[in-house]
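#structure-requests
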Amino acid sequence: MEGSSERAQVRGAGRFIWETVETVLIALVLAVLIRHYAVESFVVEGPSMQPTLHSGERLLVNKLIYRLRPPQPGEIIVFRPPKATDKDYIKRVIAVGGDVVQLRDGWVYVNGRRLSEPYVAYRSGGTTPPFQVPPGTVWVLGDNRPDSEDSRSFGEVPLANVKGEALFVWWPLSEAHILH
C-alpha cells in the first residue's frame, strides 16, 4: 500500500510539473503572437510630435487595425520610413492615396481645403506645389513642424511600412491617456 501511495505522489508531482511547463509555454506563445500581430509597446524618441507626445513616453500600438482597414487622416501611426533605416517613426497621417497636399506659408491644404490642426503648436514656413499622394501610401507630418523629419523630407509612406495606430500613452502613469 505504501509503495502505491508513493507512486501516486510521484505521478501527481510529475503531472504538476508538466502542467506548469505547459502553462508557461502557452503564455509565452500567446505573448509572442499578441506582440507580433496585435499590440506592441513603442517609445517616443525626440520632439517631433510635441505637444501631443513627448520623448520618453511609452505607447500601446494597435497592429491589427490596419489589417482590417487603411489609416485615416488625423490618426497617429508608427511606421518604417521609405528610406533605409531600422528605426520606427511616429507621425500623424495628413493625407491618403488620391488626396492632393499643398503647404502654403506653414499651413497644410488637402484637396484645396486648409486643415484645422489644433494639435500643431509650432508651424514651419514654406510653400510647396500641390502633390497627389499615390494610391497605397499615406503622407505624414509631425505635430512639431520645425523639428520633424516627415513626408516633407522622405516622401509618402507605403502602407506596407505602417506598423499600427498609436492608441494609448501608458507611461509615465501621470501622463496616461487615450490618443484620438
